[in-house]
Amino acid sequence: xxxxxxxxxxxxxxxxxxxxxxxxxxxxxxxxxxxxxxxxxxxxxxxxxxxxxxxxxxxxxxxxxxxxxxxxxxxxxxxxxxxxxxxxxxxxxxxxxxxxxxxxxxxxxxxxxxxxxxxxxxxxxxxxxxxxxxxxxxxxxxxxxxxxxxxxxxxxxxxxxxxxxxxxxxxxxxxxxxxxxxxxxxxxxxxxxxxxxxxxxxxxxxxxxxxxxxxxxxxxxxxxxxxxxxxxxxxxxxxxxxxxxxxxxxxxxxxxxxxxxxxxxxxxxxxxxxxxxxxxxxxxxxxxxxxxxxxxxxx
Amino acid sequence: xxxxxxxxxxxxxxxxxxxxxxxxxxxxxxxxxxxxxxxxxxxxxxxxxxxxxxxxxxxxxxxxxxxxxxxxxxxxxxxxxxxxxxxxxxxxxxxxxxxxxxxxxxxxxxxxxxxxxxxxxxxxxxxxxxxxxxxxxxxxxxxxxxxxxxxxxxxxxxxxxxxxxxxxxxxxxxxxxxxxxxxxxxxxxxxxxxxxxxxxxxxxxxxxxxxxxxxxxxxxxxxxxxxxxxxxxxxxxxxxxxxxxxxxxxxxxxxxxxxxxxxxxxxxxxxxxxxxxxxxxxxxxxxxxxxxxxxxxxxxxxxxxxxxxxxxxxxxxxxxxxxxxxxxxxxxxxxxxxxxxxxxxxxxxxxxxxxxxx
Lengths: 299, 358
Prior knowledge:
heterodimer; A: mainly alpha; MetI-like fold; B: alpha+beta; 8 helices; elongated
């Protein structure tokens, strides 16, 4: 913070984002915690209050951990959660395998080409997320473009089952989340000093070895950022598995949706949401603390 | 130039970038045990030439021999030369030791031998104690030492240095020049240094190749280049010089200079009569003595317009009757100082006159 900034402006500029976080992140979170400790109740709101008065008029704590016990005890939730982790992990790995070469190629392209290429990567974002996912239904369904082309070419005799499979979910995930992987990788690779690669080759490394020993290690922060940006939303993703995965693909986002909208059990779905949040935040926060400590040691 | 004694031989090497000739037909032999400087203004092609030797650029035409072998199209990792980058290009994710080890591991070294070679290289640049540091924890001068160690650890046939002084302050520059000279003597290999600073080239190099527009315009020892510059550009690059345009006089042995109002006597062979030439006289070869010797060039009735005191010497700017302003340097102490406005006669011997071809 520069010394010339007046304290009042400083307070406003740093205060506004905090206010935003309190209103739109912290408060809703508190509400969800509160709902997760309540019980289902037919009415509006569809859950019981945490504090109530007993017969004697005394304040009574009526919160319960029953929802958490239910979620922990029923293997459906655990299975859905583990399956979500698996699908998100595979999707992230696929996005990395596709995104890294793309980011590398764009970062190494002539200067005038980089902006148009990045623009092409971002172009799908200009249309609605839902429309993009629906478009894949059109491509993947038995009478869709892919199957009719394969049939016409005579490569298959009957339509392949592409839609309502995990494969379709992976396609949707990678397609929708690729830019989140690509942009941090590009930002990192674009800054990479080309003379480092030249120095490695000058010191006797083949171009392949220089890539693995210099380019890849220096891109690690971009890899971590990209993987987090894909993995975290992918775990809780609802639309893609719902539209492309069908009934066979069980993911925690769908379970949450069902509890909330079909069963109208807000407390249980709030408990599921809290557990997913904890399961994601704790390992990521730990990793960040470890990385910050490592960076602190280096400097 | 004999092929056998040269560690690097360039034969009519050419390189263009999108139609711009960066290196335009350079032939050069770097001897096995010499300090050679490629000197020129930015954009003259000197760095491209260095990168061609290292293999980081491919020559469009010509041949590059290293240690007698044709390496014109060999990739950089097989060439027995190493390049110290202007930015040093230290690997930021590796310690000093690992930076030095990187190149040695490519040679298949490991274990005790690897450690010994790392230690030896770091000792040569006096960086033994800092092996565990990261590049970002080092000063600019220390980073340069690590970059040097990383190159010399490989025991290359020649070390290529791209503007090694560019990032150093003045005091460190002078020390580093001496250290590079000593290091080259101890290693007994060739150094090829690219620089835009004539002082770097003069103080360090055994031979200097002056480059302009992709060509070597003159190659010689620093003394040859200073005393016998072949062109206006070389004369101007190396120190101060008085440069005048003129024409070969009708007698074919002197040069008529209108701004001096006289025909200059010279000791060198001149082109045809009436041909335009440029002559150069170093300021320290000119004296302000009132009594010229018979063979000297002399101009009377000159006026001292300005005096610049520089410690060991003073520079006098002297106006001669026909209009030229002549720069003269004189030792202080041995000669009495002259005041501004004094009337003097200006003299210089015939052998101080250098005729420039371009």
